Amino acid sequence: MSERLRRLPYENLGTTEGSSPMGGVFFDTPRFANSVPFFRFQRFGHGEVRTDSDHKLVVVMVGLPARGKSYIVKKLKRYLSWLGFQTKIFNVGDRRRLAGSANEYETAGEDLQRVGRKDSGEAPCSGCSSPGADAQTAECAQCETRHSSVFFDPDNKKARQIREQVALEVFEDLLRWLQAGGQIAIHDATNSTIERRHALISRLKCETDVNLMFVESICTDRDIINRNIKLKTHSPDYVGIDPEVAEADFRARLRNYERAYRSVGAAEEKLDVQYCKIIDVGKKVIAYNIQGFLESQVVFYLMNMNLEPRVIYITRHGESEDNAAGRIGGDASLSANGSKYARALARFIDRRRLEFAVEVEEYNRLVAQTICSTASSTPGTCSEAEGAASPGSAADALRLEQSLLQRRVQPGFEVWTSMLKRTMETAEFFDAQRYRIKNIRSLNEIYAGKCEGMTYQEIAQKFPDEFEARQLDKFYYRYPGIGGESYADVVMRLQQVIVELERIRHSVLLVTHRAMARTLLAYLMDIPTTHMPSMELPLGYIYACEPRPFGNFLRVWRYDPLRDDFEEIDAPSALKIRYPQVSLPTATSAPPLPSPAETAYSAKN
Asked: What is the reported pTM?
């Protein structure tokens, strides 16, 4: 191994100075992305963790059930992890289900486990319809740990004591994880009382260099609340329970929570605690005393959320002349195959745009019918703190269907490309009257510096040390020369693109490059950044991410040149991560080259 690689990552491996084709000016740019302290990208496993601040952050969620806390938590964790922060969610509900048998604490009300059973071909347990248990034996583990609405009654002192104890135990786990090297920990629970929040504040006073921030999710939209309640009937608390029984119990649980619920406000302000309120999934945001850098990143991201039905399509440009020659970078035009792909892409998006509109309309009608069918038998569940929203009604269902149908027919599909010719030429066949086409410099391909326009074989022969370094660490490796970039630099460059993708309320197609597609899909599908550079994303594929309540739903289409059309394929098998063995070049061996599928598509791809 070369002397220069032995020094990685502890020494400065050279700097560059000058202007970059990517825009802006580079002065004293370190040769490796991790050679100076930087908040996003820390390197683990080398005895050193570098960050721009010694402070860590605890995000404590607040809010009633069915108000979108889990949705916010998962998105926030995904974003912060993508930026390079060590982030982890600590869910109190998961621990609470293991706290003990519900029957020990429920002293009133109908036993949830004994009603609403569904028929099953297998022997159910004695308490629910979960198959696989001996009916002559005790209840299964699910029933033993299931807590019905009575467990959440604020007058049930023993159950309340258990809930508070579990919340504090999870908080202790959270603090131990931070002490072991974590950066941002999220306490995912209702934390809906002033007493609970003050207990967490008091416990954190014993810790140094750990900041606290409350994030409260408030929802006054009856349509969103009712849809969330429907989703809650499929939670672990209601496995094997009839959906109608489960919904009735969950609404009773909400009423119990509302009796004790106190919104974040004056009590926390007296203690100068930072907090942020997200109202109706980002329609209104209230921030108080936000001071830290990590906290500002959280607030900035949460301000750009929305629940509009949309799809984010990602594809690489059509085959370019450089692709056909096996050269990286450059600004070549499309080949004949690339132009053929561009025409097929425009036809496919025209078709998918109409198909998705129909899918959304059918889903909205189903939701409206469900709300209408349960409206007459369901009591209200909204507290004064969140407004006097009443349960779903026939009028609510009609209003929901009309409003979403109106949104569906509104124009707004956008096509984003980079500033390089091969992506702009790929978008030439879209009707400018029906699509808003934007050229964005941040979507340009990773810049290879001195290696621009070379083949991998030429790089291995001319810059063997560089080739070796990139094989060892593709994420942090930065190409040599003025403006050379690493994947870590690409993440920083795409941060504003990600926020804009979260902000827009309509579908968008991104026509971009391999490194950009890898980075974007790593965020959307919560793929670790360490795996990002190894994702196989050949030419001729379309990746469609549809935001849903519990994450992004991925569909993949592959272009067939013989049919001149796209066919849908299995998404998990298409989103593969390749882990090649590191093969270092020698004087007698040929260097490994990228798969042909990575530079051009064939009839089989």
From this structure: 0.79
Query: Element (H or E) spanning 363, and its range?
Result: helix 336-375
| Known catalytic residue at 17 | no
Given the residues 445, 466, 468, 546, select the one marked as catalytic.
445
Question: Which one of the listed residues 188, 223, 249, 466 is annotated catalytic?
Answer: 188
CA 464 – CA 450 distance, rounded (Å)? 13
| Residue listed under structure tokens 């692709």 | 323
Active site residue 513: yes
Q: Is 221 noted as a catalytic residue in this protein?
A: no
Task: Classify 597 as helix, strand or coil.
Answer: helix
Rounded-to-integer distance, Cα 368 and Cα 476, Å = 49
Q: Which of 128, 143, 219, 545 is catalytic?
A: 219
CA atoms within 13 A on the CB side of 398: 3
* CB-based burial label for 492 (10 Å; 0-12, 13-18, 19+): middle
CB 9 within 8 A of CB 476: yes
pLDDT digits (tens, 9 = 90+) for 218-253: 999 888 899 899 888 888 888 888 889 999 999 999
In tens, the pLDDT along 468-483 reads: 999 899 999 999 999 9
Amino acid occupying residue 200: L
Per annotation, catalytic residue among 144, 319, 513, 545:
513
